[in-house]
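sanity check this record:

:::
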Amino acid sequence: MNQCFAPTSLYLTFETEGQGRFTQEEVQQIVERDPTGSVVTLNLPSKSVIISNHQVYCDWWYVWCLTYFMRVHRDVFIVLKKSLKWVPILGPGMQMYRFIFLARSWASDQAQLAKKLSKLGKKAEEEDKPFAFMLFPEGTLVSKDTRPISKKYADKLGIPDLDNVLLPRATGLHYSLRSLAPRISGLKLLDITIIYPGVPPRGYGQSYYTLRSIFCDRVPPPMVHMHLRLFDVARDVPIGNISNSNTSAIVNGTWNPTPDIPESERVNFDRWLRELWTSKDQYITRFLEGDAQVVKQKSVEIPLELRDTVEVAGAYCFFAPAIATYIWAMLTKALF
């Protein structure tokens, strides 16, 4: 898709000072190039939960492109809001690829998420295959409509609101990590800060780049900047005591609710995630304002192109459900 209709490149930088940092040796080991110097593989963990800030509707697409170079793109499970399930063309493709659609209401989402996580965790535990679970803790895009909601939430907590991102909601992520960590040994948390150059500080990315403008009008962002941090879930992330976690939330088709997370552990994780998001917000501001230390940080450029032309047919299988639905609708209309 990008290669044909919306060419752009990922520019990756790696945290080297704060939490989730990489050493220079680790960065060198992660980036694998072919004899021409092109990046062909990113040796990041094959089993991880991936989180990111949410600027535009195609954020998930660009993160999925990143997993292509991580070589885990066939085993990605992406959590998106339920309304995207019915987006023309992309919606049927997302359903085919087992995306997880939630209503952004914990009361209604908990049972469905528990069922999905139980199955995914069991499969990852029994099969030695890559596993990537992607979600956006903000739950929605930064926009003129969602900014007041974030401000209201900040006022409720008695803390300052953020400038470039929304305050994250920790419940879904916390629940997911506690559900998956007992199942998947060595589970990692990959945190991505996405920045689209040209979007001003406190600006709204969706006002500049939409699915239509990128793929139909063929006006993609000139580059997609991704700043990476990596955490060992068991060692670095305060998910709390999981010794009593119920790893079999679904038994004989029935959901068995896991015990409530102790309040102290919930508060501790909430605080940790907000601090991570505050650091993310500060990084975005420094980048957009041209802070020399951030802008001059060595980056890895990855043009969004397939490694081999043979993979083209496989890539377009994403649209097979949409094409089949369209053909069936046309036949039905013609015959009846």
User: Anything to note?
Assistant: Residues 47 and 131 are 5 Å apart (CA to CA).
